[in-house]
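pipeline: protein-struct stage 2 | run 1193 | Succinylglutamate desuccinylase/aspartoacylase family protein
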Amino acid sequence: MQLVKHPLLSPAPGTQRELVSLHYGTPGSAAGKAYIQASLHADELPGMLTAHHLRRQLAALEAAGRIVGEIILVPMANPIGLSQHVLHSHLGRFELTTGENFNRHYPDQIEAVATSVESQLGPDPGANVRILRTALRQAIETSPVETELQSLRRTLLQLSCDADIVLDLHCDAEAVVHLYTESPCAEACDPLARFLRSRLTLLAMDSGDNPFDEACSQVWWKWKARFGDRFPIPQACLSVTVELRGATDVTHELASQDAQKIIDFLHWRGLISGAKPALPAPVGDARPLAGSMPIKSPATGVLTFLKPIGTDVKAGDVLAHVIDPITDEVTELLSPVDGLFFARDFLRFATRGMRVAKVAGKEAIRTGKLLGAR
């Protein structure tokens, strides 16, 4: 294993943060490259503990000579957010200087790269992938940055932009295991969902504000659309946001199980040698992100849920009560669709307009930006 430190742009004299990446296997291997990062939202810790178990398993596999691809693990993807504590509360989702979500606004090099390499592309899809990856990596490496946050985004993309598999480990507040990926990645994502025992995969095309996972995968389907029939461009990157349950599901038991499931998937994909593990049966399905319906509270008060996460619900089912402690009025929060009640907030005092839960239906209903929290 090679440990690499990547200095970020210093935000002030005497201050210097760095990103640490762990490298296993052989760069440029024909077996492919996987990139895994944890806690881009720095206060989402299940992925960080999973990375702790992953690095131990990867070290043992490397010592046994079984890593035949290239695997990069970033055990803590956000040193900026890790340091943000206000009045003893950890605020790791938004950068305090700009208010920007650490998982949004990744730079777009799609058109610039396409223009620069168009004359080099031809009928060989494998050669086209290599040409585009080289140009994309160069474009990212030479892109100017002005802030520490921009330098973090650039560094994460430098490490991941040429990977065949990108796994971004997150969690919700309280949730079942679920995944987000782009629709062109759906087929390739299905085995990952099976290994992780994911109840739900949410699919979208360009969900809004360019989150990290889409910045890695969308280049390929957008290049394919741009070049049309002139040059074959495969979907060369499976990039997935992996939601490892809820924020308090930080146990060695769960993390070691999740790490093993990720190893099994990488083994199944051929980055680890040996007899492939059997592909598990699915326990969930894929649904449109536009069918994932946020449940908002129309009132302020004490929030108590009546349904556990992981429940299949019907439109009109009462999911929760919001109780005004002064008037004693009880407001019912209803499911707007038939679907899977897959996530809810861990706060138990709701304010008017607050999103407190999510139900995933099977029909696309929403339009516009599909992700919350700018």
